[in-house]
Amino acid sequence: MIRGMNRREFLQIGATGLALSSLGNYAAAFADTRKRVGLIGSGWYGKCDLLRLIQVAPVEVVSLCDVDSNMVNAAAELVASRQKSGKKPRTYGDYREMLKERDLDIVIVATPDHWHALAMIDAVKSGADVWVQKPISVDVREGQAMLAAARKYNRVVQVGTQRRSTPHLAEARDRIIREGKLGRISHVEICCYYHMRARGNPPDTAPPANLDYEMWTGPAPMRPYNSIAHPRGWRAFMEYGNGIVGDMCIHMLDMVRWMMDLGWPGQVHSSGGIFVDKNSKANISDTQTATFAFDELNVVWTHRSWGDAPDPEYPWAAIIYGEKGTLKASVQKYDFIPRGGGNPVHKDVTYELEEFPEDKTEKDLEKHCAPAIRAHWKDFLSAIASRGKPVADIEQGHISTTSCILANLSMQLGRSLKWDPVAGQVVGDDEANRLLARPYRGPWVHPDAATV
């Protein structure tokens, strides 16, 4: 959409466009307009994503939304200090009011997982292209509806699985896997051994005055407010997400699928539970394995939020085993170890601290992830310009998300689940299919792929 602008704005955008021309085709997206951006969920990663966008494109952040008034006000001050115009974005407590303005080209959805589906679907209906954090949904039917909405309204949707845009991982894919240095690959291990599960059992309390807890809960079951959940601790509860599998497995599974051009797993099996930390209020598993069965290839996930990692150098990683060697890959580096001698290959993460000095001091920024997020934005903006599919298109996010949800359902049911991607359901298992959609708390209505 071309919007009116004055001569000064036009000249500023033109100069910026020239400066960005070396960064990729995405600069063409700004030849005639400054993209207007809104953020839903102004917490930790919402700000990380938004501030990386400001670094690589001449956007104007015009709207921020969060149910925590302190959080959204602080984010507005920060954005004003970082964007070129110096303007403070409008702030909202209800994302529906923000979308009613219908003046946004790009909407970032960075809420807790249980809010992704409704916010993303409403954003594409409003005419915006959307960046939605992973996992895309808390249940399978939500993901199907999100994919249907993106296609129906012809919107570009990028999922925040930025491993697909991580420079050293792209190099590992191209230099090691695609050049055949591993030979035949028939086994992959993916893992997370971070001690990231919430511990402790603080008492439930009244929510703080700055938090609209009714809106924060939204379609999820209403739990008594607990200080673990907000901010940033909500992943401790299955009511709001899918545990460590939904948080960390999706990244590694999606990375392996991208590196190896894999589609849907044909069967998923998982087992685990709360085996060690039984005193915490958290209700997600502390120990879990899952097997994603592809043709002549198993991808096996393991997480433990206790004990030591088998390989301290790769505590959150993928280990890809081939006939000719092994590839270890993580957000920090990769190592190729050939069998029977030969030259190993090592590559560390690429930092861009001198080019983007804000990264050095930005609070809570994962500095090693910043280059990947910037590259992910460039890819998304190129797709907006071409109206094509980005590298982490919503369909790819749906496959990786659904696979992880099926792992949790398999653990819950105590049996393997065979997936039919055409029918969009589990084969011959009515009980499992009934669990593909979680009940919504009223007045919120669960989205349906047939009616979005």
Structure description:
- The chain is an alpha/beta fold.
- 32% of the residues lie in helices and 19% in strands.
- It has helices at residues 7-20, 44-56, 69-82, 95-100, 116-125, 140-152, 167-177, 213-217, 243-260, 370-386, 394-413, 430-434, and strands at residues 36-40, 60-65, 90-92, 106-109, 129-132, 157-159, 185-192, 267-273, 287-294, 297-304, 316-322, 325-330, 333-338, 345-348, 417-420, 425-426.
- 48% of the residues are buried.
Summary?
Helices cover 32% and strands 19% of the residues. With 452 residues, the chain is of the alpha/beta class. The longest helix is centred in the C-terminal third of the chain and has 20 residues, at 394-413.
List the helices and strands and how they pair.
Blueprint: H1 7-20, E1 36-40, H2 44-56, E2 60-65, H3 69-82, E3 90-92, H4 95-100, E4 106-109, H5 116-125, E5 129-132, H6 140-152, E6 157-159, H7 167-177, E7 185-192, H8 213-217, H9 243-260, E8 267-273, E9 287-294, E10 297-304, E11 316-322, E12 325-330, E13 333-338, E14 345-348, H10 370-386, H11 394-413, E15 417-420, E16 425-426, H12 430-434
Parallel strand pairs: 1-2, 1-4, 2-3, 4-5, 5-6, 7-10
Antiparallel strand pairs: 7-11, 8-9, 8-15, 9-10, 11-12, 12-13, 13-14, 15-16
